[in-house]
Amino acid sequence: MFMRILGKSIARRKQRVAIAIVAVVMGAAVASALLTTSMAMNDKMGEEFRKFGANIVVIPRSDTIEVGLPGMTFGSVTEQRYVDESDLWKIKEIANWSANVLGYAPLLYQVVEAGDASGGTQNVVLAGTYFEREVPEILDGAGNPWVTGMRRVAPFWDIRGGWPADGDLLGSIVGTAAAEALGLEIGSEYSVRYSDPETANATSGRFRVSGIVTTGGSEDSQIFVDMAAAQALSGRPGKVHSVQVSGLCTDCPAELIAAEIEASLPAVQAKSVKQLVFAENQIMMQLEQTMTLVTAVALGASALGVMTTMTTNVIERRKEIGLLKSIGADNGRIAALFLAEAAIIGLAGGAIGYGAGYGLAQYIGHSVFESSISLVPVVIPITMAISLGIALLASALPVRRATQVEPAAVLRGE
Amino acid sequence: MTNVVEMDGVTKEYGNGTRALSEVRLSLRQGDWTTIMGPSGSGKTTLLNIVGCLDSPTTGAVSVAGVDIAGLDQRGLTKFRRENVGWIFQQYHLVPYLTALENVMLAQLYSGTVDEQRAVEMLERVGMGHRLLHHPAQLSGGEQQRVCIARALVNEPALILADEPTGNLDQKTGKIVLDLLVRLRAEGHTIIVVTHNTGIAALGDRTVELMDGKIVLDLACERKGKEAI
Q: What interface predicted TM-score (ipTM) does this complex get?
């Protein structure tokens, strides 16, 4: 009987109820759109930022030694140290945030002489790294070795040609400026010569250009070869200067990952790339602040719309309320009738609003981020709960007003 | 015969200082038809509202069906009203979007037992069995009032209170409604009717006249052989 009254009461005032639903739809749509955008973009932006390179750098811990005369300090020197290559897999095995370590690429730098196009030689930085290396210590869910390397850490590298295969000691990636200076093309072979600054012993290596990279950064003037080839050239087997780590930082600060890396690897310092993380956080914070503000305004407007409709509803139905009270309806029953109507308005508005919001999210995605926004299932119950909450909250005052109707007064026409 | 209503020293003052009832003392017997009369503003409806638990006295004691209702809070008054009082209004006050049957069932909803068959029986009893699924707007004034009576009766209340039950009806339909009330009285229902109509008063067992909130006349009438004028 209660449902029959509820249904007929709503059916009788279809237009008013529709207006209230539209009010909820507007708020729910904005909330849904912004929640979907925020959640989807959080992941997406983490991915986007990752494309720009590593956001954590691991370097060996070095003691600083003050030098000078008694009472006078001339400055400080640091002893050259290395990160042990055999420890690198531990980066992926940190305590709590290992899933957020998306990849790492070690680097071993050395300055080498390479023949240029004019027949002379030029000094150029040659870096050994992993292009795409299997890590046997780490297995994925299927039991296959986890794969890491520069291809994973720097997917944004614009490579002309291709990446050298893993273990290809001849292949190399040459920066676009270096290739131009050395007169190298894809497929060219070239020699380099490394002189040990301490022993003056020289070693030579021969490489082939697999790809030419353009990053717009320092990589454009460097040469990248397989780590083993670089270590052999400079006689530093198992040693690396630094490791670039790509950490997914949507749900944790990069500093946390860095701290865990420091705890896992002996004698290293891991630092987040502050500027990158700062920019990432700034954009996300600004986005979320704007979204929160817009959502709050939209939900406020929805609440006003529902409150207005419910107030009108109560005023129009004062006699009916008085009658219901005169035949025995207590305040709880009166409140239940109006709150049930508000709940239906909230849920209907929430459901329609979610759909509209998903469409709006697609529009925002395409117009602001130039990409589509994926469906985030958790937004559905959140939107429904927000819509229901707003409708019930906005009905609180009108319902209170309904419970205060004095039957004797309204039934005699006051 | 036991008294179903006992009022002793009942005074009702409204917030604006108006005294609607003043030291009213009244006892109504179970099964009687009592007619409350008096000019506008004499306190008739206030008295009815207090007996029907829609209002509370400012001072004085009121007992209905053996319960001291002056001491009940809003929740208690609502519960008592639901279980003991059936209202018949001059304006009928039917819910416009519900059918005749649903309007009767509405009273059952709040008493806790919805029995559609019983609601149908009540409507048949007042001669509305053929209009069960009609909405108030599709019914004449007399028909609406009969639905209102069926609604008042459906929970078997101890008291039936009627405020100008024929005030909005022409003489012919008014007679149908009054005949129904006469029949209810004959079946043993206790009825209190507020009216200006002396013809209606003649149908009752007792007439109480109010003036400025005080009882100025309390007259017992001959009961036998009465029918609506």
A: 0.85
